[in-house]
Specification:
Order of helices and strands: EHHEHEHHHEHEHH
Largest sheet: 5 strands, parallel
CATH topology: Rossmann fold
Shape: globular
CATH class: Alpha Beta
Number of domains: 1
Number of helices: 9
Distance between the termini: 39 Å
CATH architecture: 3-Layer(aba) Sandwich
Oligomer: single chain
Structural class: alpha/beta
Radius of gyration: 20 Å
């Protein structure tokens, strides 16, 4: 299974989920370029099509073909794009998913080329800004925005070089770029959204689920940080679709075996 974090987060958000997965399920959780411990993108661009191209290349280099993909926020948009271009993906879990109709502030365009200023501004301001965002935009319970949480989100932006990438990552964020990949193919799809999510309101998530013929679950006591706020619910959904995907693969294998057997002649040789 593959887990894709949000726009400016890192793979660290998936640790609570990984600890709750049943034995036998493996989770590949990369840091996307320019975030966490991954180096910046050589092109300096972070549009959805750029992220998808790099992700597919990275999976191919590892020989990885994930059948189940879970994405959070912008990572959910990337998960949909991957499923639309990779037939090996059989199931999606979308947590607080960015939708193609999610509004994008035009002011983000002003951030392009702001790297030199970000080198100076981001490192000293990252912790208070991240604390405010976590308290007011990510967690339903503001007490979750403790020192450890701030470290997880603010830590990667401490170096001036990494901070210089942040404006480009944010400026290239464009939810409408998801339209060419939407709706995803007819695969198992479940949407999870927090009842108190103000970044992706439950009604937007429900619209996405309907358009993709998927299921939706609205989680009480949660906002936009589902992988950390409700890891049990995410783990349960992942385990369920993994089991369904495995059962579907076994049925497909049986069907292929029966088809192959029907083509065998009376003398035991293939016709």
């Amino acid at each position: 299974m593959l887990a894709l974090h949000g726009l400016t987060a890192s793979r660290a958000v998936w640790r609570p989920l990984a600890e709750r997965l049943p034995t036998g399920l493996a989770l590949l959780a990369p840091d996307l370029p320019g975030r966490g411990e991954s180096p910046p993108a050589p092109s300096g661009r972070y549009r959805l099509r750029d992220e998808l191209r790099r992700l597919r290349s990275a999976l191919a280099s590892r020989g990885a073909s994930p059948r189940v993909v879970v994405g959070h926020s912008q990572g959910a948009a990337l998960a949909v794009a991957l499923a639309s271009t990779d037939p090996s993906v059989r199931a999606l879990i979308l947590c607080s998913p960015v939708c193609p109709w999610t509004s994008r502030p035009p002011l983000l365009d002003l951030l392009r080329g702001a790297g030199p200023a970000a080198r100076r501004i981001v490192p000293p301001l990252r912790r208070p800004v991240v604390r405010w965002v976590l308290r007011h935009r990510v967690y339903a319970d503001p007490t979750r925005a403790d020192g450890a949480a701030v470290d997880r989100y603010a830590g990667p932006w401490a170096s001036p070089g990494r901070a210089a990438e942040l404006p480009g990552i944010v400026a290239d964020w464009n939810p409408s770029a998801l339209w060419p990949y939407f709706p995803p193919p007819p695969i198992r799809l479940r949407v999870l959204v927090g009842e108190e999510d103000r970044r992706v309101p439950p009604e937007d998530a429900a619209r996405l689920a309907r358009a993709a013929a998927g299921e939706i679950r609205v989680l009480s006591g949660a906002a936009h940080g589902l992988p950390e706020e409700r890891p049990d619910a995410v783990a349960s959904a992942l385990a369920a679709v993994a089991a369904e995907s495995r059962a579907g693969s076994e049925r497909e294998g049986d069907a292929r075996f029966e088809a192959d057997s029907s083509e065998t002649g009376a003398d035991g040789h293939q016709e």
